[in-house]
Structure formats: C-alpha cells, structure tokens
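Entry 12.
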Amino acid sequence: MKFIPIQNGQWDRQPYFDHYFKQNRCTFSMTANIEITLLLGELKKRGMKLYPAFLYMLSRIVNAHVEFRMDIREEKVGYWEQMSPCYTIFHPENHTFSAIWTEYSSSCRSFMELYREDQLRYGESMGLFTKKDMPPHTFSVSMIPWVSFTGFNLNLDHGGSYLLPIITGGKYFREGKHVLLPVSLQVHHAVCDGYHAGMFLQELQQLADTCTDWMD
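Predicted 3D structure (tokens):
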C-alpha cells in the first residue's frame, strides 16, 4: 500500500503539527456511547456478528479521512493510501489474546468474508501475533466486552510519536429501549483536533443508523 509523504509548504496543518509534535507533544482520547439498537437488529436478521461489522464501520471512517491515516515513515510525515484494521481476539482458555489483521474492502460483504477466512485460519491460534507479515498500513482496534466503561486511555511509552488512531469498544448495555456501545477514540493532537474526533464518532453513529444501506 502506498505511503504518500506531505511536501513542505503544502500542508495547512504544519504549524499545528510542529506545535503538538515538536514543542508540546500531546495525545488525547474521547469516549462516546454509540446507539446500536437498529444495527444489532439488522445483524441478527442477517446472521452477522457485531465485531466484524464494528471493524468495517471503523475502517470505512478511517479510510474516508486523511487525518486518521497519518504516519511517519523514514522520518517523513505523510499518510497511507488505505488502511486495514489490526484487532484483538480473546482466548478464554488461558485469558490471553492474539492481534491479527484483515485487509480492508469497501464492500461490507467482502470484508466480512475476509474476516471469516481469517477467523477460520487464525482464530484458535495462541500467541500475540499469529498472522504473520502484518503490513504497516494498519490501525489498532480492541474490545473490552466485560465492562461498559465511561472513559478509556491507553498509555504508550512512545505515544508522543504514534500518529495513528487507536479505537477501543466496551460492553454494550441497555438504556430504556436503546442499546448503547461505549467507544473510545485515541488520537495524536498533532494530526487531529477535537473537531476530527467528534466527526469520527458522529460518522460512526451515522453508520449505525444507516446500516441497512451499507450491509447489502
């Protein structure tokens, strides 16, 4: 997958990047409850699971906005042409997990099939990274389905230089007639502001609300 460097003087965000990456390195996270009542109903009718649908929705948003594809390669700031999700699979046998990746497809059905193939091949394999040759154009997703958290922050030792988004989902819960899924988005302030984080979560809600449009 092609990495596209940003040329000097051709980026409106350059002074913001310099400030939050060179002078005052800063990451932040934002958590919101996404209503998935309709989404769960449609998935059940179609015999589909929430996790791969969640991965598809996240990947669709990431690939729609360059701010969520920013990276540094060979000391050059740029963005990936396309990104795929790297996500965790829990092993109840020994309470460990594996991190694997599935190549992104803009077609939901195609992505679901690729996900299914990866589960059949790697789902029961123990180890941290069981699918070899993970490409650099991946972003991280994890689930904590045991708790409906109200906030989540992942502290990386090298977090000051990690530009890609990190998304974490929690245990969905009922509130009246609605089903809500807590989702935390962690980004680097050098490439994303509150506007971009808010846009990400708003678009995630829109995809949940319009799931009948993109599932076919």
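Annotation: Residues 29-210 form a domain with the Chloramphenicol Acetyltransferase fold (CATH 3.30.559.10). The beta strands are 3-5, 27-35, 70-73, 76-80, 84-91, 96-101, 138-144, 166-170, 173-175, 178-188.
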